[in-house]
Amino acid sequence: MTIHVEGLVAIAVFYLLILFVGIWAAWKNKNSGEAEGTDRSETIMVGGRDIGLFVGGFTMTATWVGGGYINGTAEYVYLPDYGLAWAQAPFGYALSLVVGGLFFAKPMRSRGYVTMLDPFQQLYGKRMGGLLFIPALMGEIFWSAAILSALGATLSVIVDINIKMSVVISALIAIFYTLVGGLYSVAYTDVVQLFCIFVGLWISVPFALTNPAVSDITVTAVKQVYQSPWRGSVNKNDTWVWIDNFCLLMLGGIPWQVYFQRVLSASSATYAQVLSFLAAFGCLVMAVPSVLIGAIGASTDWNQTSYGAIPPKEKDEADMILPIVLQHLCPPFVSFFGLGAVSAAVMSSADSSILSASSMFARNIYQLAFRQSASDREIVWVMRITIFVFGGLATLMALVTGTVYGLWYLSSDLVYVIIFPQLLSVLFVKGTNTYGSVAAYLFGMVLRIGGGEPYLQLPPFIYYPGWTTEQRMHHMTGEMEEVVIQKFPFKTVSMLASFLGNVAFSYLAKYLFESGKLSHKYDFLDAVVSKHSGEIMDKTTLVTRGNNIGLSEMASVKPRLSVTLAAAFTRRDTLPTETVEEEEESSPDSSHHDEE
Q: Where is the major localization of this protein (predicted)?
C-alpha cells in the first residue's frame, strides 16, 4: 500500500480549513437572534433569519453543487452512451432554483415557517406531517450516504488509504461543526466549499487539456476518436425518459428541506427569491469545469497515461472519471490541490442534509407532534442527538450497503412524486384536506414503486406502456441479469396522479360530509367537520405552543382554507392593521378566534 504524503497533507489542510471555518462561524454567531428573542433551536435551524446576499448566494448554490454534482456531471459527459445531452443536473437543478424562487420562496418565507413540513402540519394535521417526514428523511439520509460513499471512492484514487477510515473521519468532522454551529456553520463552510471546488478544478483543467495524451475536445465532441462523441444525443425512443428525468430534477429539486432551510434563513421574502436566482446562475457556472473534465476523459488515449491501456469505462470506474483525470493527466502538485479541494467539498456537502433531517425531526415530529410543551433547551438537545444519530446512520449506510445510489434514486423519486404535489396543493390549491393528502400519498407511492428500480433489483409490478427488457451487469455481483426498462415517463405521471388525487379526494370528502351523505361521526381524521380540532396545527398551535414562530412574522393563515394564489404573494404582516382586521372579521373561521 502506497501512501502519497503530499495527497494526505493537501486533504488534511483542506479539512482543517473547513473545520476551522465551521467553528469560527459558530463562535461568531453564538449570540445571534438573542436580541430579537429568537429561540436557540430556531437559530440552529434557520440562523437568525439574517443570512445576507453574499453568504446566502454561496450557501444556496451549495444546496446542489457538492461532490455528487461535480462527479456526476463529469461522469455523464464521459459515458459513451450518454454524453453532454444526458448530463441534465446543471440545467435541471438551475431551473429548479428558478421555479423555486418564482413560486415557492416568497409564500414560504413570508409566512415565517421554520421547516418545509410546517405548512403540511398546519393544514393536514400532525399525523400527516409525520407521514410526509418519512420520504423527506429518507431523501436526506440517502443523499448524505451517497455523498460519503463517493468521497470514499475519490480518496481511494488519490491516496491508497482505507476507504472506511476516510469516510468515518470526513463524517465526524462534518457532524462536529454542524453540532457546534447549526446553520451558520453550514452556510459559512459552503462559501469555502464552493471556492475550493472552483479554484481546485479550474487550476487543473488547463493542465489536463494540454496533456499530450488528450486530443482536441472540440473534435471529439462531434467525431469518434477513442469513443463515441462526448456531445451525446437522445434517441427518439428515449425522449420520454429524458423528459421524465428532466422534470424530476427541475420540479423534484424543489421540495427539499436543504433548499427551504436556506430560503427560510434569508432576511426577507424578496431576498429568498434573489438568492434562488443567484444560486441558479451559480449552479451553471460551477458545472463548466466538470463538463470539461468529462470531455477530457472522453478525448484521452489512456494507453499513454499512468492509468493503463484499459479506459475507465471498461474497468467500471466511469463514476470516478473526475478524480482519475486529475490524478493521471495533471502534475502531482496540481492533482493533489484539485483532489484535496474536491474531497473537502464532498465532505462539506453532507452537513446540510444531516442538519435538515434533524431540524424536521426535532420540530415537526418531537415538538409539534409529541411534546408541545417542550422547552427550547430540550429541543436543542434533541437536535444535537439527532444530528449525531442521522450522521451516524448515513455513514453506516455509506460503508455497509453497496446499493446506496439505488436507495438515493428511489427516495429522490418519492420526494418528487409524493412531497412535490402535496407542497403544490398546500400552498396554491384552495380546499384540499387530510383525506386528499392520504390518497395522494398512496397514489404516488404505489405508482412509483410499481415501476420498479433496476439498481435495487426491485422488479416492477406495474408494466407501463413501451417497457422493454435489457441484459445488464449487476454493479455488485458482476453477473449479467435481465432487467425491465420503463420507457414511459411514469415518475411524472405518478406525480400528476398524486396531485389530481389530492384535489379529487379532498373535494369528494368535503362534499360527502358537508352534504350529509356521510355522517359527521365518520370524519375520523377531523379534516372536514372538526376543522379546528387540536389535531390540526393551526396558527394558534404553531404560535402559542413552543413559541417557535413570532406573531410578528407569522402571516394570518386560515387553517382549513389554503391561501389563494393572489394572497400567497402578499406578505400580510406588511399590510396596515385595519386591513388584516377587516379580512379576519370576514373570514369563515373568525368565529373560532372569537370563541378562543
A: membrane
- The SS3 assignment for 300 reads strand
- pLDDT over 80 (residue 330): yes
The most confident of 9-13, 422-426, 455-459, 584-588, by mean pLDDT: 422-426
- What is the DSSP secondary structure assignment for residue 215, as one 8-state letter? P
| pLDDT tens, residue by residue, 211-235 | 888 888 888 888 888 888 888 888 8
Closest CA to 121 of 566, 552, 545: 545
Is 5-33+46-419 CATH 3.40.50.300?
no
Distances (CA, A) of 111 to 41, 116, 285, 551: 19, 12, 32, 10
- Residue scoring higher pLDDT (297 or 341): 297
- Of 187, 141, 134, nearest to 22 by C-alpha is 187
Torsion of CA 247, 250, 254, 259, to 10 degrees: 150
Helical axes 89-99 vs 67-78, angle rounded to 10°: 130
Q: What is the DSSP string of 175-205?
A: HHHHHHHHHHHHHHHHHHHHHHHHHHHHHHH
In sequence order, which residues have a C-beta less than 8 Å from that of residue 537 and are 6 or more positions away? Answer: 118, 121, 122, 125, 126, 129, 368
Q: Which amino acid is at 183?
A: L
Asked if 187 contacts 360 with a C-beta cutoff of 8 angstroms, the reply is no
Q: What is the C-alpha R_g of the chain?
A: 25
What is the 3-class SS of 79-147, one letter each residue?
CCCCCHHHCCHHHHHHHHHHHHHHHHHHHHHHCCCCCCCHHHHHHHCHHHHHHHHHHHHHHHHHHHHHH
Rounded CA-CA distance 555/573 in Å is 6
